[in-house]
Write a structure and sequence with these properties.
The complex is a heterodimer of chains A (about 130) and B (about 80). Chain A has about 130 residues and is α+β, with helices and mostly antiparallel strands. Chain A has 4 helices and 4 strands, in the order βαββαβαα. The termini of chain A are far apart. The chains are: A alpha+beta (about 130), B mainly alpha (about 80).
């Protein structure tokens, strides 16, 4: 079955529970269609690069999906109907990367209070150590 | 050393000598182009939000095509701007 990544943006004033419920409803659609959801990521409330429907922020959710086309179509149809969803993007991917995506890593480093630069420093140090060995 | 460089550049105009840059997105250690990686993509757009030409960023032709589609995807979900004034 082909692999997909589907990202959708929900309205700013939605609660975390509502978003989880919404994501679960899409997961149910996928599973009914004979597919499965490999990854379910919540990126948090992010600022938009431009205004969408007069709002400046939104909740981002991404699903990594392994499902037949019919199930994806059905999910996209439901995304289109739902008024809480401002924008969505579904793309087909060759592989679904292991572990959390870049967005989750960035979100975590923000929460811990580290800048993104510290990650690069530790990465470089690890490489130096590996080279020494 | 410098003299040999000058002769390579031709015409002896050392002002215009430039080191040959390599593609920052090719090779073993290169980062993977992904529409979600805003930090990486924002290195290849101008202040105005336009995609920089590969002659400035020295991205290879193949990677430039992948990069352009990744930037356009990121724009669609408001991770990157279409224009900033």
């Amino acid at each position: 079955m082909p692999l997909y990544e589907s990202t959708f943006i929900t309205r700013q004033d939605m609660s975390r529970q509502d978003i989880t419920k919404l994501a679960d409803s899409f997961i149910a659609i996928i599973e009914q269609g004979g597919g499965k959801v490999v990854k379910n990521e919540y990126w948090g409330l992010r600022n938009f690069a431009y205004r969408i429907n007069k709002s400046r922020k939104g909740h981002y959710t991404m699903l990594a999906i392994d499902a037949p086309t019919a199930a994806i179509k059905e999910m996209e149809r439901n995304i289109g109907i739902n008024e809480d969803i401002l924008r969505s993007l579904t793309v087909r991917v060759e592989t679904i990367e292991e572990g959390p995506s870049v967005m989750m890593q960035q979100a975590r480093s923000r929460e811990e209070g580290y800048g993104a630069d510290t990650d690069i420093v530790t990465e470089a140090e690890e490489r130096v150590e590996a080279a020494a060995n | 050393m410098e003299k040999s460089h000058e002769s390579n550049a031709g015409a002896g105009r050392k002002v215009f000598f430039r080191r040959k840059k390599t593609c920052p997105l090719s090779g073993n250690n290169a980062p993977k182009i992904d529409y979600k990686d805003v930090k990486l993509l924002s290195r290849f757009i101008s202040e105005r939000g336009k995609i920089l030409p590969s002659r400035i960023t020295s991205v290879s032709h193949k990677k430039q095509r992948v990069l352009a589609s990744a930037i356009k995807r990121a724009r669609n979900i408001a991770l990157l701007p279409f224009v900033t004034k």
